[in-house]
TrEMBL record:
The keyword Acetylation does not apply. The modification 4-aspartylphosphate is found at D163. Keywords: Phosphoprotein. SMART domains: REC. This is Response regulator. GO terms for biological process: phosphorelay signal transduction system. InterPro entries: Bact_response_regulator, CheY-like_superfamily, Sig_transdc_resp-reg_receiver. Residues 114-230 form the Response regulatory domain.
Amino acid sequence: ALSPVKLVTTITKQVQEWKQLYPHIQSPEQLPILANMAKLGASLPETTVQKLHNWADGKTSLRQLARHLNRDILTVAKAIYPYVQQGWLQLIYSDTFKPSKPEPSTESKQYKGRIVCIEDTLVICETIESILKLQGYEAISITNPLQALGLVFQLRPDLILCDITMPELDGYEICAMLRHSTAFRLIPIIMLTGKDGFIDRVRARMVGATDYLTKPFTDQELLMLIEQYLSPDY
């Protein structure tokens, strides 16, 4: 078994390699489909093209493909990356990974929007969820920062709450990567932190954060900030 130090080093290296594939490859749950068979046929051996034709059917995820090929997911992702970058292969999400926004119920509070909270402390996630759901928001928590990017692209929230201090991938990095995507260039991203320092605020702004909320915060402070950025006038 790997020692703790070697394990952390290995995980850190893998995280860095996944970051290099972003935003072209965002999640192991994405499904490859052929977008330009002619270009692929002219650039790759026939056997490779045939394999792609068999597997890139829009029904098989990168995770499943890696399992079928008995390869590591990252190895498979790196192998197809140049062709995704060229636009010859496209990666889509299955409908099962795209939760549809619920219809507002006439009996419940009016649906106000979908909010994703990226926070590795479960208690904080549960507290935020309960506050928001009582006010008519759909609240979804993500406690694993390494899964956050892929899930956020699947969920397409109206606003994102993101903790700054998390293991392996911090909130600054997540915010910066989301801002590189046109889909999230204008989505409000509010950073959560236990510190209230000037440098933290400046750094949050530099990576594209919309605002900043210091923990612990009251229900009212959280709701006022969210309503400010989800109001029709924003």
